[in-house]
Write a structure and sequence with these properties.
This protein is mainly α. The chain is built from 19 helices and two strands. A two-stranded antiparallel sheet has the order 1-2. Helix 5 runs antiparallel to helix 6 and helix 13 packs antiparallel against helix 15.
Length: 491
């Protein structure tokens, strides 16, 4: 059984979805989804420990060896992401029962959990597969389920947000599949490692550069790379709270992960990136995202939308490290995938509690929240410090490595950019503090914390915002191993 853990990583959540649909009972659907998520997390941890002890794990589907068959490949980079995706999936499920019951119609609840399992399976599949076309298959599984999950939000605006994401997501997937079609035309292979090896011996790079462009745009739409982010704020703002939390912590991060694999493990060995200003373009777009989206977040009337725009800015920090591309910056970039994922999990879980008690998260309704929901307000404050990057929080460690990477190559304006982005984050986090602690609650305002099951998930997420800032063995340690793999060392 242990030899088949890579396959079970995807099979467990994937097979849970049709079982849920057959049973059609919300309680059973939640239980199956919860069990599947925790089993997937246990498998991800087991695979990460195995990679740390013995190195890369390769699993040939149907015993067909790569590149002829589909390979599931777990190395330092993919193990890092598997733990993030499966960990967040497990984290939100205790929270989901009460939250989904409040935000999703009862007769649609079982469909919600079925789509959730499909989304988890799709993201795990994108992370673990070593096949270019298989990435597309799992990308479509996760995307199609995500459209439904967003549409299940309250009100017609959720349907509009889902439709906008469907259009953008379809364009992104089309660009991606064109790109891998060009790579297959040139190399005759779809295995990541085999394509990289064959590209190294190809002299005609024009179709390869075209593939690079298509794949970059396609994945850029999926990861909300500025200015391809227009779908994200509405999707996060109008989706059910569980969906917003899961997507913010995982979906864009997995797309970044796939882009990283292409840039550093497929195109870079072939010298296709030589003379192409990929790094400069990423740095420019990242700088625009960090400044512009942080400023836009300051002026949002709703807490959920504010943190949605903040997510676009935080993705800018990740792509900034990819643009700098030295060891320190890449370590900060990969660590920020986990640090930001945990931080946004905490924030959106806490905002979901506010929505449950008060009906919305507009700043007008947050007056005096510190008195009415003291735990929730404190938790948002702690997670907000991590979002800013205050020392002893998760957000500080990754930003520190980004600053070190920029200073190493003498790019002091990038150092100033990271500091400026953090200062703007202070401004929008302060808006919450001002409303919650310095304003008087309106008469008749809802009071009381969310149920204990929801607070348990919130507490774990908030605690991780601090723990990952003090104990960096996983986020920084695994990020360093992954960077060794990307830069040609041991992974």
């Amino acid at each position: 059984m242990l030899d088949h853990l890579p396959a079970l990583q995807v099979v467990v959540p994937l097979m849970s979805a049709p079982i849920i649909v057959l049973l059609r009972r919300p309680g059973a659907a939640w239980l199956i989804s919860t069990l599947a998520s925790f089993v997937a997390f246990a498998i991800a941890v087991a695979l990460a420990l195995r990679v740390a002890e013995t190195g890369t794990v390769s699993y040939a589907m149907g015993s067909w060896p790569p590149p002829w068959g589909i390979e599931y490949r777990v190395d330092a980079l993919s193990a890092f992401m598997l733990v993030l995706v499966a960990g967040v999936a497990a984290l939100v499920m205790p929270y989901a029962r009460r939250s989904v019951a409040a935000e999703v119609a009862e007769h649609q609840a079982y469909l919600f959990y079925a789509m959730y399992c499909l989304c988890v399976a799709g993201l795990l599949g994108m992370t673990i597969t070593g096949d270019l076309f298989n990435v597309f298959v799992f990308l479509e599984i996760s995307s199609l389920s995500t459209y439904v999950l967003i549409a299940l939000g309250r009100g017609r605006r959720a349907l509009l947000a889902a439709f906008q994401y469907l259009i953008v997501g379809t364009i992104g997937a089309t660009f991606y599949v064109i790109g891998i079609g060009l790579l297959y035309l040139v190399t005759g292979s779809l295995n990541f490692a085999d394509v990289a090896q064959r590209l190294a011996g190809i002299g005609e790079l024009r179709p390869v550069l075209a593939a690079l462009a298509f794949i970059t745009v396609g994945l850029g739409l999926k990861l909300a790379l500025f200015p391809l982010h227009q779908w994200l704020p509405n999707a996060y703002a109008f989706a059910p709270s569980v969906v917003t939390t899961f997507l913010a912590a995982t979906a864009t991060k997995v797309s970044v992960y796939v882009l990283v694999r292409f840039y550093f493990l497929v195109f870079a060995p072939s010298q296709a990136l030589e003379g192409v200003p990929v790094g400069g373009v990423l740095i420019a777009l990242s700088a625009a995202a960090i400044v512009a989206m942080s400023l836009v977040a300051v002026f949002q009337p709703d807490l959920k939308r504010m943190f949605a725009y903040s997510s676009v800015a935080q993705i800018g920090y990740v792509t900034l490290g990819l643009g700098i591309a030295n060891e320190a910056a890449l370590t900060g970039s990969l660590a920020h995938l986990v640090n930001h994922g945990v931080t946004k999990s905490a924030l959106f879980l806490l905002v979901g509690g506010i929505v449950l008690r008060g009906g919305d998260a507009s700043f007008a309704s947050l007056a005096g929240l510190g008195q009415r929901m003291p735990w929730t307000s404190f938790g948002i404050g702690v997670a907000g410090l991590s979002l800013i990057g205050v020392p002893a929080t998760a957000g500080f460690t990754s930003k520190w490595y980004l600053i070190a990477g920029a200073a190493e190559q003498g790019s002091w304006w990038i150092v100033a950019l990271v500091v400026a982005g953090s200062l703007i984050a202070v401004a929008y986090v302060w808006r919450f503090v001002e409303a919650a602690y310095l304003a008087q609650p309106p008469a008749g305002a809802a009071a009381g914390e969310p149920p204990l099951s929801m607070r348990a998930s919130e507490a774990v997420a908030v605690a991780l915002c601090v723990v990952l800032g003090l104990v960096t063995a996983f986020n920084i340690g695994f990020a360093r191993r992954a960077v060794g793999l990307l830069l040609g060392g041991a992974g």
